[in-house]
Amino acid sequence: MEILKTVEQLRQWSRAQRCHSGEGIALVPTMGALHAGHASLIRAAAEARPGRAAVSIFVNPTQFGPNEDFAKYPRTFKADCALAERQGATAIFAPSVEEMYPAGAATFVDVEGLSDRLDGKSRPGHFRGVATVVAKLLNAAEPDLAFFGQKDAAQVAVLRRMVNDLRLGAKIVVCPIVREHDGLALSSRNTYLSSEERRQALVLSRAIRRVEELVAGGERDSESLINAAYAVFAEEPAVRVDYIELVDWSTLLPVMSATPGTLFAVAAWVGKTRLIDNAIIA
Ligand code: PAF
Q: Residue of the nearest CA to atom 3 in ligand 1?
């Protein structure tokens, strides 16, 4: 497996792969601290583009707010490379901050409107950082497929909009949420949880399940579904809800009733850790 450090190396690697195979490459953008959720993305990428799947590992400073966890975000590079290789990746792109943001960098990608909704509302500037770094990665790697997890559903909406607006040419592939045996959605931030917080965190997936059950039983009204989710959260008073929303997945604007494809999303603070979870209404 090749370890690429510079944008130019990534560009050359991608061009060589496409030239030799006559086909496109797949890219899986990550911030490392890879878990089984990332593994499923990498596996899907390697199955779609055998021998031509690259994983980027870059803890992107511009998507963290001043009081967020950039400095303490888990960094597990060696284990990440081993996991990526086991899943069939053939290249890792691991640039430095200076490589991605040259001195004096003043160019950012703003997806207006969408970037201020859901996680963007409580994390101002977050999606600007995400869109900027993903635009740089797609521009350098020129993949025809880029893989993202449904767990970051608002991120997916922002990136779909950006790829379409900038005519970047990559198709965004979204892979399902991977969960622990007890329902907790996998996240690199789960490692921050104490054992008591780990137990409390189950309230997120319980709320999601409750809403899915209600929808399966015929409930469609947005207010009723959101209230039902709040009732589940009330079982864990130590967990602080950030948002519970039922939105159109492409605009991230609230909807009055649940229809197939609607996004039901929650975010909550468990101790000092902010977790998210969601379901797409069937
Ligand atoms: O989902 C993530 O891990 C990050 O937001 C991404 C897409 C790799 C951009 O830094």
A: 30
Q: How close is the Cα of 227 to the center of ligand 1, in Å?
A: 31
pLDDT by residue (tens digit) across 68-85? Answer: 999 999 999 999 999 999
| Sign of the torsion formed by the C-alpha atoms of 74, 148, 175 and 209 | positive
**Cα(63) to centroid of ligand 1, in Å?**
9
75, 128, 151, 155: residue to mutate for ligand 1 pocket, most atoms within 8 A of CB? 155
Edge-to-edge strand list for the sheet holding 2-4:
2-4, 91-93, 53-57, 26-30, 145-149, 171-175
Task: List domains and CATH numbers for the chain.
Answer: 2-175 (3.40.50.620), 188-280 (3.30.1300.10)
* Digit-coded pLDDT (tens) for 115-162: 999 999 999 999 999 999 999 999 999 999 999 999 999 999 999 999
